[in-house]
């Protein structure tokens, strides 16, 4: 059967808000980023959406979710638009321009449009409104041990921030692997009763869902920025900080959120967010409605930018999906 999409009724860009149109693209894959038009200071959310839509478990979650809210509907619409823009024969110019203004406004408390927001904060708000209890929840277990008195402290954090610490660059190169090793076993200060020693070892283990936001602390010793030298590889073994650490816990890189800054600090009022995204072995820089394909072996860093956080998704495990 051939489908003809009528554009006579309603505005052209609204055709993807129709559930029947969305259903037409349900089985079509997302192969690349779609250009998203930035209506007004929306780059913080555009970059997050670009990276999330490069994570297949997120896309699957969107498709399988029953649309109950406006946010559900707009997210399904966005996924359908990305699938449409991935169809080579159509040519992206044939499709209505992609905008996420309505999606932004469908989150309670919404975007005021007056100033750029923090991309990581926005993702937290999105996940709170959009994820159910079966998806996207991280849990952290911190265990601190004193080697002097043998005292032990265990803390479980139900909504932790997964933040990778920077290694000592004199000893090792800055990449995710070395950051994972440092983050999993740290020396911390712990003052505890009846003991002189306060320098203790702390192990951090996370229970990871299938899609995770991993923030990278790229300021060594609080001032020296290592962002320029930080390497991201398409696949990482998260077992050094995972509760499943007796076997590899393999995650793929969906995208890295970069913040362009001129003074090395994140100042939302005077910067810009972009995403480097990975789709089916290809890598792209998605800067609002400008999409640049990059060399997978040597992706270039956006000018004047530092990596802020990345989205990873778990490799499919046999029998799990
Ligand atoms: Zn002690």
UniProtKB/TrEMBL annotation:
Gene3D superfamilies: Cysteine proteinases. Pfam families: UCH (PF00443). Residues 34-315 form the USP domain. GO terms for biological process: protein deubiquitination. It comes from the Eukaryota. GO terms for molecular function: cysteine-type deubiquitinase activity. This is USP domain-containing protein.
């Amino acid at each position: 059967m051939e489908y003809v999409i009528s554009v006579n009724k309603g505005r052209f860009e609204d055709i993807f808000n129709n559930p029947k149109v969305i259903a037409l693209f349900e089985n079509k894959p997302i192969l690349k980023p779609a250009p998203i038009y930035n209506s007004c200071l929306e780059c913080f959310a555009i970059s997050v959406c670009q990276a999330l839509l490069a994570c297949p478990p997120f896309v699957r979650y969107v498709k399988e979710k029953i649309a109950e809210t406006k946010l559900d509907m707009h997210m399904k619409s966005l996924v359908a638009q990305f699938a449409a823009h991935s169809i080579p024969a159509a040519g992206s110019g044939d499709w209505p321009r992609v905008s996420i203004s309505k999606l932004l406004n469908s989150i309670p408390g919404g975007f005021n449009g007056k100033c750029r927001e923090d991309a990581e904060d926005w993702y937290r708000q999105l996940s709170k409104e959009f994820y159910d209890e079966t998806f996207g929840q991280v849990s952290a277990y911190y265990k601190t041990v004193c080697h002097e008195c043998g005292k032990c402290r265990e803390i479980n954090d139900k909504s932790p921030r997964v933040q990778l610490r920077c290694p000592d660059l004199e000893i090792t190169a800055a990449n995710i692997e070395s950051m994972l090793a440092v983050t999993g076993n740290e020396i911390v200060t712990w003052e505890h009763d009846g003991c002189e020693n306060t320098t203790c070892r702390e192990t951090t283990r996370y229970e990871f869902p299938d899609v995770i936001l991993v923030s990278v602390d790229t300021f060594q010793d609080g001032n020296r920025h290592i962002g320029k030298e930080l390497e991201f590889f398409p696949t990482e073994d998260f077992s050094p900080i995972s509760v499943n650490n007796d076997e590899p816990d393999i995650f793929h890189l969906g995208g890295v959120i970069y913040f362009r800054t001129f003074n090395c600090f994140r100042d939302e009022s005077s910067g810009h967010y972009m995403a480097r995204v990975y789709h089916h072995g290809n890598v792209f820089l998605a800067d609002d409605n400008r999409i640049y394909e990059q060399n997978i072996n040597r992706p270039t860093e956006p000018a004047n930018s530092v990596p802020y956080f990345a989205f990873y998704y778990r490799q499919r495990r046999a029998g799990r999906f």
